[in-house]
TrEMBL record:
Family: Belongs to the glycosyltransferase 104 family.
Organism name: Pseudomonas cuatrocienegasensis
Keywords: Glycosyltransferase, Transferase
Job of this protein: Protein-arginine rhamnosyltransferase that catalyzes the transfer of a single rhamnose to elongation factor P (EF-P) on 'Lys-32', a modification required for EF-P-dependent rescue of polyproline stalled ribosomes.
Catalytic function, reaction form: dTDP-beta-L-rhamnose + L-arginyl-[protein] = N(omega)-(alpha-L-rhamnosyl)-L-arginyl-[protein] + dTDP + H(+)
Pfam family, one: EarP
Descriptive protein name: Protein-arginine rhamnosyltransferase
Amino acid sequence: MRVTWDIFCSVVDNYGDIGVTWRLARQLVAEHECAVRLWVDDLAAFARVCPQADAQALVQWQAGVEVRHWPQPWQACEPAAVVIEAFACSLPGAYVEAMAAKAVRPLWLNLEYLSAEDWVGGCHGLPSLQPGGLQKFFFFPGFTAATGGLLREAALLAERCAFQADAAAQAAFLASLGVERLAGAQLVSLFAYENGALAEWLSLLSEGAVPTQLLVPEGRVLADVQAWLGVGPLQAGAQHRRGALQVQVLPFVEQAAYDRLLWSCELNLVRGEDSFVRAQWAGRPMLWHIYPQEEGAHWDKLEAFLAHYCASLSPQAASALRAAWHAWNAGSALAQAWPAVQAVWPELLAHAEQWCELQAARPDLARRLEQFYRNWLSYAA
Ligand code: TRH
């Protein structure tokens, strides 16, 4: 009998909530033989990360996952054996009552946002008492052995290494996006929120000695790119050249193709949570635009990650990387910080691969969830 899982996803903003839950749902099916229902309140967002999806269907099967529109009002159904409330999205009251009424109660987990902060390790796996005598466990993704780990498919790194060693496969993939690699150019992907530091940085790249090919998937940062280029609305396929910099707008592609884009580039600018993790699996230097939070709460998270990430860098490389990440997230002075980053590029490149290996040496998040369930079962028995 396959273990049944219900994953609830409420799309707050952007694509991170659905991106993470869709990735997890697929992996639980593909690698752990689970029967997964993914409840999503915004099917249009789901169709962005899964282009073959039907944004109108109340029920559909994608990659072995039963994807259900989260109905309002809720319609009664039998709860699964494991219930994941992603990012504290609040389960329907009637569903919680149905969980409490079951003879064998489900394991209820709140899958939290990713953070490298120290307190996460101490809170990971803790229960909280809920009405009806139920318990809800906090499950924190993270970068240390004390946390729930990171999402990483079993074959991911082998696929990535094979792809990066195969120039023809890279060229064919880029061609499928309408990209032809310019001789001698560094390839850079840009996925970010609106950012005041972009214009000066693009000017710097346009004056650089090495040509840069900047690939920008359709999204929020396009308005800044457009303003710097001084052109009208940019759409997928648009290409513009300014000095040493060529800018090309790409369509928003499915998640597996976005991975390949990250694997193809020498530098990836990523944002939020899921693209940030995927850039780490690419083994290439990255610049993270963290999701801005009220009262600047995101700065602590940025610092916490930098503390881990920079720990094994030389003081010079650590200071260059920190300055660039700070500037990018403050929305100013990235251009001033960039030459120091370029000066330590070989070290940053080697470090990106080492960091990837370090993180990949730990069990991935789906495996840890599955283990958590098994431990909980044996404890409850
Ligand atoms: O879209 P985001 O900004 O999501 C954010 C974060 O998750 C943040 O933590 C959360 O609080 C906020 O939403 C509400 O960035 P993120 O997390 O990188 O998610 C983007 C998803 O889109 C990711 O799964 C990768 C995917 N993607 C594609 O599938 N194709 C593409 O072409 C691109 C550029 C991204």
